[in-house]
Amino acid sequence: MIKSLDDFQVYQLAMDLGEDVWKIVKDWNYFCKDTIGKQFIKAADSIAANLSEGLGRYHYKETKNFSYYSRGSLFETKTWITKAMNRSLITDIQYNDFVQRLESKGAKLNNYINTLGK
Known about the structure:
The chain has helices spanning 9-25, 30-56, 60-86, 92-115.
């Protein structure tokens, strides 16, 4: 079991994603930030936040539950990325990069979840 956030690769990748979402959304106009932007940032940040909370619980069942919440936030983030793309708030290149990163994180997160409690 992972003991430190510094050694937790999925967490580090999720932190990077959250920062990249922030960098994009901060330049949007007020309406876009207030509608899609806030939700997009909250969902992306929640991926890492749930992983860290679960790890901090020091019990594999709670760690696993919070990892499931993190996976839900990952899926929610993909929804907001798609909405941002559909509404021309991000480019095709940004969209494809985010989707690829989320799919990679999702696979790593699933592998991590599968190791918990065994």
